[in-house]
Amino acid sequence: MQTLSEENYLKIIYNLDKQGIKKVTPTAIAKALLNNPASAIDMLKKLVDKKLIIYDKTRGAKLTSAGKIIAISVIRRHRLWEVFLLDKLAYEWDQVHDIAEQLEHIRSPDLADRLDKFLGHPQYDPHGDPIPSSNGEMVMNSRLMLEEANVGKTYKVIGVKDSSPEFLQYLKRLDIGIGTSITVKEKISFDNSMMIQIGKNRQTSVSRVFSQNLLVCE
Amino acid sequence: MQTLSEENYLKIIYNLDKQGIKKVTPTAIAKALLNNPASAIDMLKKLVDKKLIIYDKTRGAKLTSAGKIIAISVIRRHRLWEVFLLDKLAYEWDQVHDIAEQLEHIRSPDLADRLDKFLGHPQYDPHGDPIPSSNGEMVMNSRLMLEEANVGKTYKVIGVKDSSPEFLQYLKRLDIGIGTSITVKEKISFDNSMMIQIGKNRQTSVSRVFSQNLLVCE
DNA sequence: TTAAATTATTAGGTTAGCCTAATAATTTTT
DNA sequence: AAAAATTATTAGGCTAACCTAATAATTTAA
Predict the structure, then answer these.
(1) CA of A134, closest CA in chain B: separation in Å?
(2) Where are the domains of chain B?
(3) H or E segment and range at residue A47
(4) What ipTM score was computed for the predicted complex, to two decimals?
(5) B4-63 has which fold?
């Protein structure tokens, strides 16, 4: 059994690795956790002892398969709780992260599965990140920025990149939320704006800044 | 801001007091928290420093108004989460306590209120205990054992005393859950059994042991 | 009201997880 | 390649929350 803090380190190591960093170093971990490299080293030693990571100076930290299982299950819980907070408790996209950061550590054998079922087995969290299944598989991340979408195709909104109140409010005014379908009608090369159709009827033009901050999937 | 552990102590002090114990002593607290009286004294000192309790050997520990506000809000969160786990995640009555024990410490200014709203402002938790309102008021506890109910009156099920799997399964077979209405048809003095009506149609006889373990309110 | 039992308190120790400051190693710049 | 900058590591400390063991105080029972 691992502590809350160990879970956080494993999660961060997983995320840093996935972000394509060359080497997961104590300094990088400390930066991500807003603490001290010396603290990170303390914890790396502990995780090595527990065989949850392997670590050497030249190659950095790598999760063992046991470590990866824990990291993914923490991420799964985090993303499920984010969906819960957004869908059920009507939080905004920018408010869910900090609370989910706490909820992800609640210990119970079947809580995540029950939550998953209750939420209708969501595929993505409100930031467009895929939710791992209970056996640790994550769907291929087929999300893209609306900017990169193809004319004529229809997409589903899965999240936002920018989650400033301004952007969120603008989205609300356009009736765009998680799951809204958006069809790309036209791309205007002059200013990189886009003509899109929201749902079945509404049509509007959106700026490049807009389309760079809306995550969709096919 | 108080730590998780401080919250637990405040909650226990509140509960012990409410249970009618004459004096909330370090030993009683330690027993409730499954730890050592010496630890309890450490914490009592800390809580006195923070002006969340007053303590002297002869009178025991008493919550200050600041301490009481915190204790009640922890209890509110605990009971709301219990309702969530039971109603939404389909946990059984006997499984919710331990998870709620963790969830009650999640920190967020408006989480409890949002949860409360989402759950439809429940009055009681699955153990029949009243849920404090956001301003800290608790409804008069009008719960009673079915055993004490009056013939001819209709009651609402609010919880169970015994939460063994056997009892819970029996209840499920009788279609009795939180909120089910039960009308007392007759009391049989011979063996203290009862004839009750469940919902609108179903009628059955229940033993004294049964009626001593089902909590209802008017 | 003594003796026995229980409770309160203190002293001193442990562990997890953090810290700073010093030093060693490595990388980057010039 | 030498100097400058960055990173890794160690040593030594800190705090919260627990612990055990010893002692003092109080309560209960004989």
Answers:
(1) 16
(2) 4-63, 144-217
(3) helix A37-49
(4) 0.87
(5) Arc Repressor Mutant, subunit A (1.10.10)
